């Protein structure tokens, strides 16, 4: 099942890239494995998946412990869900990328833990582009002020922006949100954010990730410039939250 799902998703990613005149290599597919058992991740790994997305700290830490050293190739663990400050320490050295930074306070906690572990943590700023009450993330006009503060933290590297678009039947409805986030991303890349004082600016070469698009809307997201798509249901099937691992 996973095999057929992945080939179907791959086919659609390629087609979306073709429509947008983009190369397939510009888009990273993250297999969102939340709630799914280790065996399914192993199966996905055997089929070539190397990026896994989890939304819960404990679940990610457990899967990392169970699987990371077992895989011959390097795998990349993405924390895509809301992160509480008191849990940063459990994943700071496991997450390849934290997609969900939406406050200075959270970033300061990441900075502290990263300093302690002597590493530099790659993060994305989560943006609630559609301004939904139920979603985490900063609004579009808060992104540059937050980014300006984050450039002062030496153990954090802001790699780009992330959004979770509304749940819609017709993915075309989300195109405007993806477009808006892409515009903001391009704006930041071209602007060089000043770091208030010592003259250093954001390294725009490292600001290169736009994480947007899920099972229901990833093709539109790719057409609008996504460099990472996060796909769960489309690869692993429906989630059953009654028996989460
Ligand atoms: C669960 C989740 C996904 C994947 O959702 P699907 O619709 O199953 O593809 C993507 N991003 C985030 C942040 C998620 O929590």
The average pLDDT score comes to 94
Euclidean distance between termini CA atoms: 20 Å
Spatial arrangement of strands, main beta sheet: 7-6-5-4-3-2-1-8
Task: Please tally the helical runs, counting DSSP H or I stretches of 4 or more residues.
Answer: 9
| SSE class | alpha/beta
Main beta-sheet strand count, sense and barrel state: 8 strands, parallel
Oligomer: single chain
Q: Quick one: overall form? A: globular
What letter string, H or E per element, gives the SSE order? HEHEHEHEHEHEHEHEH
Q: In what range is the share of β-strand residues? A: 15-25%
Number of strands: 8
Low-confidence stretches are 195-200
> Rounded to an integer, what's the Rg over CA atoms?
17 Å
Bound molecules: pyridoxal-5'-phosphate
Helix content: 25-40%
